[in-house]
Amino acid sequence: MQSPPSSERPERALKSVFTSLPSHISPALAPQSDNADPESDFNLHEPEPRRQPPASLISPAFTPPATPGNATPNPNREPRGIPVDTSKSTEQGPQLVETLPEVFCAVRARIPTVTGSEMFLHLYQNNVDNKEHLAIVFGSAIRSKSLDAPRPGETEMDRMIRGAYVGRLHPGRTNSRIEEIKQDAGVQSAQAAPLVRIHSECYTGETVWSSRCDCGSQLDEAARLMSVPSNARTGGVIIYLRQEGRGIGLGEKLKAYNLQDLGNDTYEANLLLRHPADARSYGLATAMLLDLGVDSCRLLTNNPDKLRAVEGPNREVVVTERVPMIPLAWKTGGKQGVRSEEVEKYLSTKIEKFGHLLSRGE
Ligand SMILES: [Zn+2]
Q1: Which of 250, 199, 253 is nearest to 69 (CA)?
Q2: What's the confidence (pLDDT) of residue 91?
Q3: For bias kind Basic and acidic residues, which ranges apply (predicted)?
Q4: Of 19, 35, 106, 317, whose CB count within 10 A is highest?
Q5: If you measure from the C-alpha of residue 214 to the centroid of ligand 1, how many angstroms do you get, rounded to a whole number?
Q6: Cβ(354)–Cβ(277) under 8 Å?
Q7: How remote is the CA of residue 247 from the centroid of ligand 1, in Å?
């Protein structure tokens, strides 16, 4: 005698109907998946059912796929922030450096980008490591004090070559300041708190197309948000820190990937390699922001520890708002951005083990 069908049977039957259909017959909703089912083709930890993201967060259908720096700025959407005040927080904050490092902007150059917007790349030196940390600055209102300061014995040509000029360079220009200030109506001091993103270098995610993490698409999205015309009033800064693999370096990160393939998540893999789960420090970011005249900002992040870390030991920089960073793949229902089994696991680890303020359907 046949046993009565279990409660899972109808769902399985439905699944087999969906999976047996030709691929062009897409159901309006993905079949329900139970994650314990090892045979499921749909074991992608889908939110069930997916909540529609607010209209303001959906990128337009014509946006091309997110290759580095290639997203289409949308003129109508300014990122929405959530007011924060870390001075009222009672939570134990992250370990902060006692004194800020000294930083010095050696050179700056205008970089027109593939999206049509342009930014000024600032290369920094410092007194704590030998790496070339970068500030990617959107808008002409944000200027580096150490770059603009006169250097002994330099000529006007020297100043222009290292990027300490106002306005635009053009063939035949002989002076780094003065007459250009009058000509360039766009030159003004920064008004309100600019949008700031602290980004740590990720060679695998930004350069060699890794789908183990979403760093490449996060960098693209940060640049896109800073380039939208509605953000032009305040400008924006991406502080690009050379701290690969949460600070452990590329070699160790590759070992961690092998440990992940052996069944550990990012957090466990770092601990197995005897690295702190997150070895990054943000003192350099704070010092670079101060050099850029940014003493208050709207911080683009989901990481609660970053809010306080970026402010510095004595709240030298004040974060007035947190602007959520929503993975492009979630925002667009998987049409754009990184979407893979690995990146889903990585994002889940960020939420569960690193306490990121991110929820599906945000
Ligand atoms: Zn990455």
Answers
A1: 199
A2: 59
A3: 42-51
A4: 317
A5: 6
A6: yes
A7: 11
- Residue 120 binned pLDDT confidence (cut-offs 50, 70, 90): very high
Does residue 51 belong to any structural domain of this protein? no
Q: Is 233 a catalytic residue?
A: no
What pLDDT is recorded for position 119?
96
First to last CA, the chain: 50
Q: Is 110 a catalytic residue?
A: no
Q: How confident is the model at residue 244 (pLDDT cuts 50, 70, 90)?
A: confident
Distance (Å) from CA 234 to ligand 1 centroid: 28
SS (H, E, C) 184-252: CCCCCCCCCCCEEEEEECCHHHHCCCCCCCCHHHHHHHHHHHHHCHHHCCCCEEEEEECCCCCCCCHHH
CATH number of the domain that 208 lies in? 3.40.50.10990
Distance (angstroms) between ligand 1 centre and the Cα of 138 equals: 23
Would 340 be classed as within a structural domain? Answer: yes
Q: Would you say 39 and 188 are in contact if contact means Cβ atoms under 8 Å apart? A: no
Residue 47 lies in a domain: no
Catalytically annotated residue among 77, 224, 246, 278? 278
In terms of average pLDDT, the best of 21-35, 228-242, 343-357 is 228-242
Lowest mean pLDDT among 22-36, 271-285, 333-347: 22-36
Question: Residues 240, 250: contact at Cβ < 8 Å?
Answer: no
261 pLDDT more than 60: yes
Catalytic-role residue among 162, 212, 280, 298: 280
The domain containing residue 121 runs over which residues?
82-142+190-243+280-353
Give tens-digit pLDDT for 289-326: 999 999 999 999 988 888 888 999 899 999 999 999 88
Whether 249 is in a domain gets the answer no
Domains in the chain, number: 1
Provide the whole-model pTM: 0.70
